[in-house]
Amino acid sequence: MNTHVEEAGPQGLASALVASGALRSDWLNTYRAVPRAMFVPDRIWPGIPEGTRQEALVDRRTDPHAWLAAVYSDRPLTTQWDDGEHRGDDLGTTPTSSNSLPSMVFAMLDDLNVEAGHRVLEIGTGTGWNAALLAHRVGAANVVSVEYDPDVAKGARRNLAEFGIKPLVHVGDGRQGFADRAPYDRIIATCSVGDLPPAWAEQAAPGGVIVAPWGPLYGGEAIARLVVDEDGTARGRFTRSSAFMRLRQQRATFPPHERYMGGRAWPADGVRSTTTTPPSAVGGWIEQFAVGLQVHDAWWSVERYDDGAYTLWTYGLDGTSWASVDHEPGETEFVVHQSGPRRLWDETEAAYHWWSDRGRPGFERFGLTAGPRSTVAWLDDESCPVPGAEWLR
Questions:
Q1: Which tens digits make up the pLDDT trace of 293-306?
Q2: Which of 156, 220, 223, 383 could form an S-S bond across to 125 if both were Cys, CB 3.0 to 4.6 Å?
Q3: Phi and psi of 137, rounded to 5°?
C-alpha cells in the first residue's frame, strides 16, 4: 500500500507531465511549490484523460490511498455535480466544477506565456489550484479569478488561504471579466465558450493574450490562443483539443425530442433519402468541430439498439428541423429522414466533406478572429474563412 502512495505522489505526476511535454522546466518549480493535493476536496469523482466520463466517488476519509492516487494522476477530478444540487455519492447528471486535468492545466499555462509581474485575469476559479499556480508565478496581487458559483468560490478562498496565498477571488458573471483591475496582460478561461465575451478583449492590454477553450454548439472543442490588437480584435490559432465544462451562461437549452415529432410517430413528415456517408463519420471530436463551424444552432444524439444498429438524430434549436440517419452494421448505404425548414443531414454531410476534401485538418490548422462585430473561424490563415463560420454580435 505504501508503494502505491509513493508511486502516486507529486514526483510521479511531475515525471509523467515532463515526459509528455505538458510540464516545461520553467513551470516545474511552481508545480512543486503548489501541491495539487491542497486544492482538492475530500470527495471527488475521477475522470478519464480523454472524454467526459467520470468514475465512482473516491472519499479521502474512507480511502485516503485511492484519493491520493487520483490526485496525483493525470486525470480531471469532478468536485461538483448539477450546480451543487446533487449531494449523493452516485454520479450526478452533469459535472459543473472540477480540478482540471494536470496536463491540460500546464499546457494552457504554457500557451499563456505568462511572465513575472503580468496582470492576469482567470475565468473559472474552481478549486483554486490554477489561480494559486498563477499567483506563485506572477504575484498574488496581480491575479484576479472570477467564479460564478458562491459556494465554489468559498471553497477556493479557503484553499488559497490555507496555502498562504491570496489572489482576488471575485464572485460574478465570467462574461463580464473584472473591469476594476483592467487592463490585463493575460486572460485565461477554465471553462469553454462558443462566443468569446467582448469584455475579455476589451479588458486586455494591447498585445495581451487570451487562452480559452472554444467550441461550436454541435460539438468538438479546442484551446484558442488569441492575441489582442490595438483595435480590440483578438486573433490566433487553436493549439490542441480540449473538453471543458461550458461557461454557465452559455449553456444551451435543448427542446425535447417529442416537440420535433409534433405528437406523431417517426418518421412523421420526414422526407426519405439515402446516403453513403456513414453517420459514424461525423462522430469524432475534430469531425464534430469541423461540422459545427458550419452547421450552426444544431445538436445531436444517438439512439442505440441491441443488435448494434443505431440512429443518429440531429436537431435544430428552432424546435422544428430534425434529421435521422439509420446505421445498420455491415451496410454501405444508410436511410435518412429530414423535416423542417432546414435539411440538417444535408448540411452536416456537406460540412463533413468540406473538411475531408481539405485533407482532414486537425485543430492546429484552424484559427479564430473575434472582432467587435463578429467572430470568424478560418483554416490555415484569415484569407481562408471556413464557409458559413461567422457569428455576428
A1: 999 999 999 999 99
A2: 156
A3: -80, -40
